[in-house]
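Dear colleague,

Thank you for sharing your sequence with our group. We've completed the structure prediction you requested, and as agreed, I am returning the results in plain text so they can be pasted directly into your records. Please verify that the sequence below matches your submission; if there's any discrepancy, let me know and we will rerun it promptly.
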Amino acid sequence: MATKLEQAKAKLRAEGTTIKAWAKAKGFSIHSVRAVIAGHNKGHYGEAHRIAVALGLKEATE
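Please find the predicted structure tokens below.
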């Protein structure tokens, strides 16, 4: 079974979207997006959390 990170990467590949283009379109730092996708940043708070939510890795919190 694929992990959520693998599913997020596969979704971007299937859409033909680069990480850089996705980050720019969503207004995120490319470095932060790469860190979340690589699993280095777990997205507990701040921009990393917003990235994880946008990628579908986490549920939005209020």
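Summary note from our side: The longest helix spans residues 4-15.

Kind regards,
the structure core
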